[in-house]
Design brief:
Elements: H1 11-18, E1 32-36, E2 39-42, E3 47-50, H2 65-76, H3 89-101, E4 108-113, H4 116-131, E5 135-139, H5 148-151, E6 169-171, H6 183-195, E7 203-208, H7 224-234, E8 238-242, E9 266-269, E10 280-285, H8 286-289, H9 304-319, H10 322-343, E11 347-353, E12 356-361, H11 373-385, E13 388-389, E14 391-393, E15 399-402, H12 410-428, H13 434-437
Parallel strand pairs: 3-13, 5-6, 5-7, 7-8, 8-9
Antiparallel strand pairs: 1-2, 2-3, 4-10, 9-10, 11-12, 12-15, 14-15
The structure holds pyridoxal-5'-phosphate.
Length: 443
């Protein structure tokens, strides 16, 4: 009989033995046995406040009654497993609801997938096939997914192991804290590309994160994205807005692109839409989404369990006004973090929208030089030791990222702030060793 490793070995060690390294990002030693609300239960029973919300997918936290009820009901009388083959009520109702709450003109359609990656992949393929154009524009630092097509239009440094698609134009994303490329300079570069090596009539679509997430939680300068979208749409270039991380209420509005005054051709949703279950969507005009039959098929996409959960998530966010809650609580959270910056010189910038907040760590306020990535990892590690979990983003691995469940309470937010305060101070004092964080320097 096989030896039962679960008796003697930690979940963390067992994970490292059997789960493919290519599929793992581990920012701290947290291993989970349960979760409720904004609290995760780690192996051994300790409660951890989750300020990451599983990278934003746990939009309603864990085991939210509305999601449990809706998904449980769908699971208990399962209307097939495939929207590909038969309509099911939750999928059709969720599509109807998404069209109601997403601004846009004319006849539109919804495509369902399992992840942000497959949804952006679908948008790439539809844009190319429906326009007959082959090229794309996106941003340095952008993360649109981890399957071939969505990777190929991404510009994140974590993806340099795979070449982008031929003809991709990568623009700098203007960063108000690091004004190396101003909004004007980027628009000028785009005009220059159009006038020279990238004729606009060759470009199918531009992929935009309305708030750059994995590239460093960067809020674009006011008016920049609208000017960019206008330049593209004038040339018949489709504007695809990737709302996967910051959409569905997180930014303080239901859609983050609404802060920017954009009228996107396609809207891509993921992560928070499923409340932790695999669910993504592309919303676009019928002329694109109906351009061919049987073009973007995945057997279990739009299954009744995930779409019932999605419908419960969307209804809860709208009914409980969690977008407005995210705006209010996020502003208070950001203000608290700015307060910490008065005592911690390592905080260079605090920014974001709603409950998508980034804290950029620097070694020197004059030069704004990023901290060493090990410093960031130590802050994450110490915060975990103190009972709070979050992770980091940014091309220099120096931006703490907070994307908590939208149900986060004021008291939880204050408790989180106090741990962040303590962790920053204690890492500066040298309380965490390089060895402790060596396994957690991820990207
Ligand atoms: C996470 C993310 C994706 C990819 O979503 P997955 O569900 O991981 O496939 C795409 N775009 C953005 C902006 C993201 O943050």
């Amino acid at each position: 009989m096989q030896h039962d490793q679960s008796q003697t070995t930690s979940l963390f060690e067992r994970d490292a033995r059997v789960i493919a390294n290519i599929a793992r990002l581990r920012f701290n030693p947290l291993s989970l046995t349960g979760g409720r609300g904004c609290t995760l239960i780690e192996e051994g029973g300790r409660e951890i406040l989750d300020l990451s919300g599983s990278a934003g997918s746990a939009s309603l936290g864990y085991s939210h009654p509305a999601v449990v009820e809706a998904a449980g009901r769908a699971l208990g009388d399962m209307a097939g497993a495939s929207l590909l083959l038969y309509p099911n009520a939750p999928a059709v109702a969720l599509a109807e609801r998404l069209l109601e709450v997403t601004p846009g003109d004319g006849e539109r359609r919804v495509w369902f997938g399992h992840s942000g990656s497959d949804a952006n992949d679908c948008a790439v393929r539809v844009a190319r096939a429906a326009t007959g154009r082959q090229r794309f524009i996106s941003f340095i630092g952008s993360y649109h997914g981890n399957v071939s097509g969505s990777m190929a239009v991404s510009g994140h440094t974590a993806m340099t192991h795979t070449l982008p698609q031929a003809g991709l134009v990568l623009l700098p994303y203007p960063d108000p804290y690091r004004p190396r490329f101003s909004a004007e300079a980027v628009l000028d570069l785009l005009d220059y590309q159009f006038a020279t090596t990238c004729p606009p009539e060759q470009v199918a679509a531009v992929f935009i994160e309305p708030l750059m997430s994995d590239g460093g939680l960067i809020v674009p300068p006011p008016g920049f994205l609208a000017a960019l979208a206008d330049r593209c749409q004038r040339h018949g270039i489709l504007v695809v807005v990737d709302e996967v991380k910051v959409g569905v209420g997180r930014s303080g509005l239901l859609h983050c692109f609404q802060h920017e005054g954009l009228a996107p051709d396609m809207v891509v949703l993921g992560k928070g839409l499923g409340g932790g279950l695999p669910l993504s969507a592309v919303i676009g005009p019928a002329r694109l989404m109906d351009h061919a039959g049987a073009f973007a098929l995945q057997t279990t996409a739009g299954n009744p369990v995930c779409t019932a959960a999605g419908l419960a998530v969307l209804d809860t966010i709208v009914t409980d006004k969690l977008d407005a809650h995210a705006a209010r609580l996020g502003a208070a959270f950001a203000e608290g973090l700015r307060g910490l910056a008065e005592r911690h010189a390592v905080i260079g910038d605090v920014r974001g929208r709603g409950l998508a907040i980034g804290v950029e760590l620097i070694s020197d306020r004059e030069s704004r030089a990023p901290v060493d990535p090990s410093f960031t990892a130590k802050v994450i590690y110490r915060a975990w030791e103190l009972g709070v979990s979050f992770s980091y983003v940014g091309l220099s691995a120096n931006v703490l990222e907070f994307t908590p469940p939208l149900i986060l309470s004021e008291a939880e937010m204050r408790a989180g702030l106090s741990v962040i305060d303590q962790a920053l101070g204690e890492v500066v004092e040298g309380k965490v060793s390089d060895e402790a964080v060596a396994p957690f320097m991820m990207w």
